[in-house]
Amino acid sequence: MTDNIKNIPVAIAGGGPVGMMLALYLDQYGVPSVVFNTATEVRHHPKGSTHNSRTMEHHRQLGIAPRVRDLCLPINRRTDVSYYTSLTGWELSRIPMPSEAEKRRTVAASAATDQIPEPLLRANQMYVEAFLFEHAKTRPNITMRFGWSLKSFVEDDQGVTVEVEKADGSARENWRAQYLAGCDGGRSAVRRALALRYSGFASLDSPYYGGRQNATYFRAPTLYRDHLAHRAGWNYWIVNPKGRCTIISLNNDEEFLAFSKAPDDGAEPTDQDAARHIVQGVGADLPIKIIGHWPWTAGVALVADQFLTKRVVLAGDAAHLFTPTGGFGMNTGMDDASNLSWKLAALVQGWGGPNLFASYEIERRPIAQRNTIAARELGKQLANMPDITAIDEDTPEGEQTRRTVRGHLATMTEEYASIGVQLGARYDGSPIVASNGAAPPHDDYLNYTPSSVPGGRTPHYWIGAGRGYGDSLFDHLGQGFTLIRLGGKAADGAPIQAAAQARNVPLKVLDVPAADARDLYGCDLALVRPDQYVAWRGNAAPADPAKLIAKVTGY
Ligand SMILES: Cc1cc2nc3c(=O)[nH]c(=O)nc-3n(C[C@H](O)[C@H](O)[C@H](O)COP(=O)(O)OP(=O)(O)OC[C@H]3O[C@@H](n4cnc5c(N)ncnc54)[C@H](O)[C@@H]3O)c2cc1C
């Protein structure tokens, strides 16, 4: 260790989407952080393409949603998911889904009380991560240390001393942080150093969907032109006993991502194997150049037994590992970053109380369990595929198999209709939520019921006449807490304001006089946290506003 210690409020191990989102939120709250990431650049390999509505609200909160949206699949391309015996064989089923342009038109025509200001975006993580990387580099409070690995750390009551090493081993640095966030992925060095284990399901026992899979990034200049252009969509599943393969569109029509079965013996996937799966899925020979492989495991649902210690905290894949069905993995991590960032800011800035740090685990660990199980249940639907032995035979038996499989596929639309999972995560029972005894809405993966019952996402409302930036209630919430005064009554918020001021808690008062907004919330006052969750609601300030402010800030 060297004597030259660099000081920083928050050190982040891992510059994947979650580490970068955490740094960007901290930057917005005015908190400096350093991001260490082993690779010198973000990885250039496609992974998930689902940035769900809540993640897009995070991008909106950071002021970057329009630029992230522009990374979508071609804007007029429908994002259908379709199923085939092969691309030259039978089409089995199609789930129609709108293009980005159609989604934007739906938002433009939406009612004032509509709950989806930011529809789910189909854009590969690879493009969004590259954008976040470039954007983070421009932010004043973020020090980017890509090409540096966290090697070890020691925590004490006041903070964490972190040792990092340059990727080529040429230099070492020591940093002293008040908090260390482990956003360093599924093999998290931070989690392992703390001897924290994952619990849950390590795989799914299914011949059709389970075990090791391979994500292949490949170039095939004729694939779109010859086999996809007339039925262009986002995701093409091949259901065939000769080999399972899913082909996923990327931003140009020459490069694609394919998922196929990886060797069960743990061997690295080869270019030849991957190309064979793709050719089999297409059902015809075509020129293919493999760019890279990324093995992953289908069916996992793993959550760390503990998310934090005194000064060290886990977020994203370091805290929970998902099977990709539903596209919840990164999205759950982005929500972790939103929850964690304001708490770290409050603690660093001196207005957060002793219960605030621990509330992160209390609030987020149950959500990780809920979402990993939701993803696994969706994966099971896939795994329960009927017998497909005869599916590509031109015989009565083949026709019968296709009919049976079509019936099964028709039940699988839920994977793409999970707005309840996306927006409905709740923190009922959290020690920093002032519950008023009202029943929260039922947790329904497929539907989201807006509710101002404390502990849930604050209901969305279009304040402005338009549907653009500046028109959403979310665009007017403060960097700290926001006290929303709803309806024409303009209830007296002064006691809550004074209590916040007395504790140096940042609080903005926002008037939303519209009657339908008051109806949506069902209350005259709602106290909203920096992460857009309702902390308290009422029709008048509580008898002891100081006690309320203390509770919601972790005292
Ligand atoms: C095939 C597939 C499809 C998916 N589809 C979706 C989807 O559609 N939607 C979705 O939400 N999720 C999806 N996911 C999951 C998603 O990719 C992950 O959840 C997400 O990347 C996790 O982000 P993260 O930042 O937590 O971790 P990572 O993306 O793993 O980033 C961690 C970073 O930490 C770095 N690191 C590791 N160790 C150290 C160290 N010691 N020091 C410094 N840096 C270190 C790594 O190099 C890496 O850059 C999918 C995953 C797969 C495999």
Quick tags:
alpha/beta, binds flavin-adenine dinucleotide, globular, 15 helices, seven-stranded mixed beta sheet, 555 residues
Task: Describe the structure in your own words.
By secondary structure, this protein is an alpha/beta fold. 29% of the residues lie in helices and 23% in strands. It has helices spanning 17-28, 53-61, 65-69, 100-108, 125-137, 189-193, 223-228, 271-282, 329-349, 356-383, 396-409, 419-423, 494-502, 515-521, 545-552, and strands spanning 5-13, 33-37, 50-51, 81-84, 91-95, 121-122, 142-146, 148-155, 160-166, 172-182, 198-201, 211-219, 235-238, 245-249, 255-261, 289-298, 301-304, 312-314, 320-322, 481-486, 507-512, 525-528, 534-538. Helix 1 (17-28) links the parallel strand 1 and strand 2. Helix 1 (17-28) packs parallel to helix 9 and helix 9 (329-349) runs antiparallel to helix 10 (356-383). The two termini are 37 Å apart. The chain binds flavin-adenine dinucleotide. Flavin-adenine dinucleotide binds at residues 13-19, 36-39, 47-50, 125, 149-150, 183-185, 189, 215, 296, 316-317, 324, 327-331, 333.
